[in-house]
Protein: Mono/diheme cytochrome c family protein
Organism: Paraburkholderia bryophila
Amino acid sequence: MTKNLSRGQPAQVLVQHKRRRFRVATLAAAFSLFALYMAWYEAHGPNARHNDELPIMQAHADDASQAPGSAPGGATNGAADGTATPAAAAGSSDLVKRGEYLARAGDCVACHTADKARPFAGGLPINTPFGTIVTPNITPDPDTGIGQWSDADFLRAMHEGIGKSGERLYPAFPYAEYTKVTDQDVLAIRAYLNTLTPIHYAPPSNSLKFPFNQRWLMVFWNMFNFTEGRFVPDPKQSAEWNRGAYLVEGLAHCEECHTPRNFTQGLKSSSRFSGALQAGWHAYNITPDKNSGVGNWSDDELVSYLSTGAAPGRANAAGPMAEVVTDSTQYLTREDLGSIVAYLHSVPPISGGEARPRDQWGNPANDVTALRGTTINAVNGAQLFVANCATCHSWTGQGVGASAPGAYPSLIHNSAVGASDANNLAMVILHGVSRTTKQADVLMPAFGTELTDDQVAAITNYVTKQFGNPQSTVTVDQVAKLRTQQ
């Protein structure tokens, strides 16, 4: 019996030794995980300073802690009683102005305003293949807006697509681009939004089909379509190019409209800026391809288009692009517009198969003489054009007012008329044009309530045949579908 006990002792010791090693290994693993978490928190937490926020970005985005009236580390320069000194107030004012400029660059008002009497209060329905997403209220109202959000909450939403309560945001909110925006710029936008009038308004709920109403599924969408991280300047490129890339890829989120989408509704990275269809409107190819894109546009023409909505002999902004010019790009500095143009001219050109540029089609018409004394018994595009369009665009199609800011544009050498599809032209006839800039208030009435689908199709096809791309036509059924688009 004693002999057996003595034999069991080494085995018992061995078991205890193994248990000790297991406990040590477990503690080491737990400590390693904790250390990794602390490292992650230091890099990504609310007070993090990212190494990829290089001087080129800081030169254009003053941090609140660097603004006049702020002490190092973000402490406020105030009086002993806690009130702000004039220097601190001036710094805060500068930050808010900077935030307003950046909010305009991001065109926040466009998506977050359904009723112009309630700016930034949300409620705008955005139709997707998976259902309707309604934009939220981003005024500082504490109950229905973001009044109770912390700066960390706001940064997380912009950079990671995660809301205050940890909910996954849908990519109709372009966090895939906003993730590139520096902390300084995001917090400047936040400072500006805090100054808005709080509007107590709770927008309607989203209307998404199952399973797309399950927000946790966005984890999988992000795996394929989202890379979190701030913009990193390319040291091989100029400061102008880097500024343009930062704006185009980040706040301005140009790809959201001008890049086609994959089956998950993420952006096709292989076809960046090559054009896409958005709610019936064609957002054209803006790569430097000379036929399909804007490769034959000069820098000044592109800057003019972004700042005024018009580039005579090229294009006139309508639909969603007219809203972008009205609410956003017209407010950008000449320096920033030039940077955007420099960057767009550098991206890889992508051909869409067009034989000639959109703005190089058309000849003046003389159909008005042929129509005199002619009895019209059917829907006739030429007659409808003379009756409805010639007063402003001239029966020759050459427009009225030449290149003046408020001119009625020529239909000859016009991108919408010379495009390979007639969607935008038909949409303009149906829904009109409204574009207000510092140069002019441009208004074309909508004819959707005055003309039938077959009449709109007839005018569209007459205009493309006479003044634009004769291969571009639209059917009555297509017009009926376009009529229903927002």
